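chain below, 127 aa
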Amino acid sequence: MKQAIETIHAPQPSGPYSQGVKVGQFIFVSGQDGVHPDGKLAGETIADQAAASLENIKNILAETGADLSNIVHVTCHLSELNQNTVQEFNKVYASYFEHVAVKPARITIGSQLLGVKVEITAVAAIN
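prediction:
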């Protein structure tokens, strides 16, 4: 059975989708842009937006009692894919997972994003 995950601590969906969906032992978190829960852009840098995106994911997972350590896979979309932006992104990303023993599997791709520099989606597994 599918269960929608909703929280006021992440941006509200801008279209016909859920912030997250729990199915059995898995949580699927929709793509989170670099914006705050009020919908305002987190900042102009990839670091600011990456942090906001990861905070949104953290807050969506928290609605189910899960946290970043439950994440098994992430897909990271960056509007500019080059060595500098990936390094800046990785610095922020690593800080969120520094205490996680088994880091999530990940793919980072360049994407055409609408008004943001970062969008991250995640899959988590819970007991």
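The radius of gyration is 14 Å. The mean pLDDT is 97.
thats it, cya
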